[in-house]
Amino acid sequence: MALDIIVCDDSKFARNQLIRVIPKKIAKNIYTASNGKEAMELLREGRGKLMFLDLNMPVMDGYEVLEAIRQEGLRVMIIVVSGDIQQQALEIIKKYKVLSFLKKPLVPEELHELLTKYGLCHEDDLEDLADPSLAIDHSESKPFDELGEKINIATGLAASKIADMLNLFVTMPLPNIKVETGTKISNDIQSWLDITGNIIVSQGFDGDGILGESLIYFSFKDINTYTKAVTNNSKLDEQTKNSLVIELASIISGTLMRNFTHQINYIITFNFPGLVSPNVEHNLTHPELANSKILNVELTYTIKDLNMNIKFQILFNHSTSEKLKEIMALV
């Protein structure tokens, strides 16, 4: 059975990875979409009978696509492929009667088993797989696309950890990756700390040539919101509050970074987490970060039920940035 297939993901790297494991015999045409809006345009034109859908995308996310499909009565089989593995996320998508959910990174055998289960392909179809170059894809690869996809997968695991701790849904952030000067980053850190009650938790890491720092930003309001939520006590002293948010920061940083380095087959060790003091220049675990080009990965977790935002930042020094480029070319 040959079908028009839509692969919807904001990462071209992720789209190509998925296309490579689609059996050729089931693909009449393969269309790609880098966000939900593009996917909806294809569906309205009648170009999709089977869609692989990511949940976390810019412009229009996967949840909005599922709702729009239901509202417009569009007929399409949907397989969700996402790094958002929160139980709450799974409960949401169940309401839309999708065929199935596959977590990232995608395991080809799981996809093939699923396609076979629903009669979309047969065992002998699995020997001949699609080529990404045959897909109808007009988008360009973004800088650090592969890195962003792997960070995105790790971000989903950390979001799931936070969600389980609080029993609340966490909105998955999209990583923003850019190269900035150490001075620019130091100034941004200082600006945050200049606001009364704000803190930043810092945790350095290194191993196998991967060297960097994770920073987790907490506003005064969010510190009070989080500590009250986990203790049901609004009268905690400052030291206790700081200990609780340092613990949370360490869980986020450890979960995300360990998963990321596991994906690229590297092992890192962590320094003890601590608060960044107002004298930023002397508080980066690796001082050379302040005087060179820094690879800056930023993302913000949102917990809507608490009206709370957690900004997470990963800083890689220049040599690590170059090493990551080499690694991404190999994995």
CATH class of the largest domain: Alpha Beta
What is the average per-residue confidence, as pLDDT, rounded to a whole number?
90
The CATH architecture assignment of the largest domain turns out to be: 3-Layer(aba) Sandwich
| Biggest pleated sheet | 7 strands, antiparallel
What do you see in this structure?
This protein has 331 residues and is α/β, with parallel strands linked by helices. The chain folds into 2 domains: 3-134, Rossmann fold (3-Layer(aba) Sandwich); 145-330, Chemotaxis protein chec (3-Layer(aba) Sandwich), CATH 3.40.1550. It is built from 10 helices and 12 strands. Strands 6, 7, 8, 9, 10, 11 and 12 form a 7-stranded antiparallel β-sheet that branches. Helix 3 links the parallel strand 3 (50-53) and strand 4 (77-82). The longest helix has 26 residues, at 238-263. The radius of gyration is 21 Å and the shape is globular. The chain starts with a strand and ends with a helix. The mean pLDDT is 90.
Short descriptors:
331 residues; alpha/beta; Rossmann fold; Chemotaxis protein chec; 2 domains; 7-stranded antiparallel β-sheet; 5-stranded parallel β-sheet; 10 helices; 12 strands
Helices and strands in order:
Layout: E1 3-8, H1 12-19, E2 27-33, H2 36-44, E3 50-53, H3 62-72, E4 77-82, H4 87-94, E5 100-103, H5 108-117, H6 145-166, E6 176-181, H7 182-193, E7 199-207, E8 210-218, H8 220-231, H9 238-263, E9 269-270, E10 274-275, E11 293-303, E12 308-316, H10 318-330
